[in-house]
Amino acid sequence: MSLEKKQEEGALSPTTSNVGQVTDAYAHDAVFGEITEDGPNYRNVGWLGTAVLMMKTQIGLGVLSLPVAFDALGIVPGVIVLCVIAGITTWSDYIIGVFKIRHREVYGIDDVGELLFGKPGRIILGGAFILWWMFTAGSGMLGISIGLNAVSDHATCTAAYVAVAFVVAFVLGSIQTLGRISWIAWVGLTCILTSILIVTVAVGLQDRPASAPKDGVWVSDYKIASDASFSSAISAVTTIVFAYAGTPAFFSIASEMRDPRHYNRSLMLCQSVVTVFYIVVGVVIYYYCGSYVSSPALGSAGPTVKKVSYGFALPGLIASTLLFVHITGKYMFVRILQGSRHLVANTMIHWSVWLGCTFGTSIVAYIIASAIPVFSDLVSLVGALLGTPMCFQPMAGMWLYDNWSRPKRDWKWTAMVCWCGFVILAGTFLMIAGTYGSVISIIDDYKESGGSAAWSCADNSS
């Protein structure tokens, strides 16, 4: 698309010459500065590509643990919790789009923190953002290692597969712009949807799930409502939060849209597809597998289907992980070089800083994946400790920031203030209680393994 077309769509602010004519040599962006033809174009993602990137930040890791979450909660409470979290996060995502239009200079959630709480807010939310995506990237690398083990029948040490995942994530995550990555997101989304649908159909056709007893008549022991312990139930809730926790990435994605005014169109498509898919997959797989559902869920339908589904899932897991690495590295990269010509020019400093950021993100994620190698526990911990404060409280604060001083305070304003208060309280409760439940679960798993599971060669796909 030509620069003039982008300017007409509101994507870029044109730079004018002394005689008031628009120059087509460069344009100014509130985040990236002067975007020229001599460097990467950071504003080149269309609305459909944006929707796919949004979906890929969500559909990937979280969906693989939804049937296990339903096992802890029961089908009816599980669906209710999922719909409630879908509603809250969709509202949060919508607020990001509104806030981005009103504050074009906002690139990440740390900018929101500074607007709300000054420098301490920037430091706290910026640090939480980095940790969140590093942990999520670690979850992605762990998922890739599980897939490689499943496809290869554990042909080599699991620690080696995690290392392979690290290399792939670093190399592909270092592609400069989301516009250039969007085609990988398309491939990854198609593959992960296909793999999960294969398992969903297979569990309905099979005699019994792979881990169920082989003798006797099999009847699924699914529960309409479960009597799980508090720690198990709250961990399941935060697992569902994790499935919707692409929210903090939407700041970065919106910043690279050609026209941010199309953000809501992308958001509605994303959340509609994600929610319907989550409900269908979670309910069907849990209904047929009951308490014998696997985590990740792709192992629930026996060894043959497991290989096939993971074969399709691997590109999707790779796409998710490289996105997590890219978004985290891009955030640090922008913060380091913002205001410098090196941000948008292909200089030695540009490439050194960029590759340093993506490598640093990848190596930390690799350490996390190797040190906490239990997939469901890692997903739950990340969702509780970092996912909720990234998806709930800041967005309520954003609405209050823009509307608290509004002169006309009618019943709608009062209702929205109450809603924001509820979102803040709910997010805080889930963060504290969910972290507690996840830590208890991790401690129990380490008691079973004797603490020897870190950097293990054991097969993690069984």
From TrEMBL:
Residue ranges annotated for the Amino acid transporter transmembrane domain, each copy included: 45-439
Record flagged with keyword Glycoprotein: no
Organism this protein belongs to: Penicillium frequentans
UniProt name for this protein: Amino acid transporter transmembrane domain-containing protein
Family: Belongs to the amino acid/polyamine transporter 2 family.
PANTHER family named among the record's database cross-references: AMINO ACID TRANSPORTER, AMINO ACID TRANSPORTER (EUROFUNG)
Pfam name, any one: Aa_trans
GO cellular component, one term: membrane
Topology in the lipid bilayer: Multi-pass membrane protein
GO MF, one annotated term: L-amino acid transmembrane transporter activity
Keywords tagged on the record: Membrane, Transmembrane, Transmembrane helix
Record keyword Transit peptide present: no
Subcellular locations according to the entry: Membrane
Transmembrane segments: 45-66, 72-96, 123-146, 158-176, 183-205, 230-254, 266-288, 308-327, 348-372, 378-401, 413-436
